[in-house]
Q: What sequence folds into this?
């Protein structure tokens, strides 16, 4: 059995207002190509199909394009759990029709306990479960953290689990010890909400979504697929692709396979002048770029000038020189008003005040002095 | 063959902020009961399943409850076209899975030309089509009105239509000569957008949605189902129910069957005092009521008092006594300031001013006179 494990597609995602739909269409076409090459027996999406609970029509249509290609046209079973970004109740519409065609879209806690069997493998498809939903379902007010919720769900699964089968858990959650990035929505704030990897003992394999780094966790049976694309500049060094999983001779073999995106992402820390003069350049001029630059005070509209050179510039962050700040604070104590203004100007413009500027400032200071006397 | 023809469910509809979901659940349960009694072979919904393009989760769940009951549990074919209130592109997700189970959800112009066959009957399920969509589809800029659009669609259907079958058109549109009410969204504004009934000649039967009155049109082959409920006070005298259609001995028999709602709707035109003293009462104290009342100036919070007696009061409209207005305007010309105030007070309170009021007004008028001199 060959499994393609995906997760965190976040279809419809925007970065700083830039819609990634074309990049996502490109990746989905790569997936389809790879599915044809590798002849997968099942495709799994471990949550966060969409980026928000009411996705755009274009996002819905792109997901349907993938579903149609995989499941309708190629007849490949497709297993999907909803993630914390997905609007589970909206996505659920029609799920009972989908499963007639081996498209299992699990979006509710009720669906967690009935495995989907494929040959000798039982797949438990557990969507992201909100603690309040779990409290209500189990009639148990003590369920306060996601750790407790998934502990309880796994206990309930363990009660019905068939040990003569291979049991695979598919879910969407944050495992203890994993790294996080900026584009992963917090599952909940103010509670200890991560999950201990040890609770997955009943399963032969655990395929997860939520964390965007495919190596956020290192474990012999528990795997993240990683996200479809670099969805924030904190993911700039993360590989993106899919997990290739094979069950052969009673053994699970899992590897991560990278896919090159349509547009890569770069984070460039430099000086504005070095960029403008092309002393420093991105690896690819079409990359999505976050510039973090010093020397920005030399121009009035640096973003415009950067976009002229690199149209996919998405973010510009100034480098504030911390040492200057400290110096300014210290100096203030022993300086006259004029000296403070002059040194502030100098530290920012790296040039002294002109004669005209000196005269103007002194005139204004005199007027202020007159008013406050 | 026995057909239940429904339309304009408008699931999730609110009237003056009051959500009708409980009333709609009640009606859907009536439909299901009737389906069991009459043993329908197919259930048709001729558009406007929902009240808005992004329906609430509760509205989606109620529609799914109906779909599940009819199609999943009872295995009855279900044919649905989307209406102008529905978000067709969102609703389309999964439609290719639905039809495997004889649930045809047609939401795009592409789906209009391929009939669904049931025994010897071919059903053409044509959703509400926007003129811009039709322009693009037919590559024809001359399509400006809905009349032209449906003319063109019917021509295209006529080209493929099999005359040896019975051909039924299901659609959602406004036929010329029909009555309109407040709760029907205008299909488009500023264009001649209604459709001539004569263009339906190629069909043996036409089952429509959009107009909420089941008898908005009188024709031997073209029928509206009418809406699920009275959705505005302009529909207060309209019967609501479903169309019972039978094809027997090569003949179509069509009748309208009313269903009593959970909560009826009444429009009461009277005097506030007559309501409060129960000289006038609604037919049912639980009805949704629009009061249109005179004598409202006698109380400060008439809506609160009406709701105490009739909690489902949804609207209160004052009856403005036109004759008094005219008299007041005329009289102003020949009266002193004091006389104007006194007669204004009297006409509203139907009592003369008290001595204290007279003194106060005269004192204030004197002060004003003093200021302006």
A:
């Amino acid at each position: 059995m060959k499994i393609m494990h995906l997760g965190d597609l976040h279809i419809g995602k925007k970065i700083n207002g830039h819609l990634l739909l074309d990049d996502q269409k490109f990746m989905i076409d790569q997936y389809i190509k790879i599915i044809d090459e590798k002849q997968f027996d099942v495709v799994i999406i471990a949550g966060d199909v969409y980026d928000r609970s009411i996705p755009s029509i274009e996002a819905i249509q792109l997901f349907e394009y993938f579903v149609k290609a995989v499941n309708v046209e190629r007849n490949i079973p497709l297993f999907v759990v909803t993630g914390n970004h997905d609007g589970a109740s909206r996505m659920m519409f029609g799920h009972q029709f989908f499963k007639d065609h081996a498209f299992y879209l699990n979006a509710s806690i009720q669906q967690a306990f009935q495995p989907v069997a494929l040959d000798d493998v039982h797949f438990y498809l557990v969507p992201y479960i909100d603690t309040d939903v779990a409290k209500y379902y189990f009639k148990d007010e003590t369920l306060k953290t996601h750790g407790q919720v998934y502990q309880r769900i796994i206990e309930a699964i363990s009660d019905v689990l068939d040990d003569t089968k291979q049991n695979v858990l598919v879910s969407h959650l944050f495992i203890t010890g994993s790294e996080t990035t900026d584009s992963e929505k917090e599952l909940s704030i103010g509670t200890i909400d991560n999950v201990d990897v040890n609770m997955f003992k009943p399963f032969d394999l655990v395929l997860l979504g939520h964390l965007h780094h495919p190596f956020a966790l290192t474990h012999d049976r528990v795997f993240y697929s990683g996200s479809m694309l670099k969805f924030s500049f904190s993911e700039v060094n993360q590989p993106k692709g899919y997990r290739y999983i094979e069950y052969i001779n009673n053994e699970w073999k899992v590897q991560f396979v990278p896919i090159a995106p349509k547009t890569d992402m770069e984070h460039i820390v430099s000086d504005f002048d070095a960029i403008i003069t092309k002393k420093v350049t991105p690896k690819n001029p079409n990359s999505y770029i976050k510039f973090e630059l010093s020397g920005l005070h030399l121009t009035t509209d640096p973003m415009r000038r950067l976009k002229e050179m690199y149209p996919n510039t998405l973010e510009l962050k100034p480098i504030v020189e911390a040492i200057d700040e400290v110096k300014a604070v210290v100096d203030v104590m022993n300086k006259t008003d004029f000296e403070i203004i002059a040194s502030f100007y100098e530290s920012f413009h790296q040039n002294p005040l002109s004669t005209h500027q000196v005269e103007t400032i002194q005139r204004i200071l005199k007027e202020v002095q007159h008013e406050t006397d």
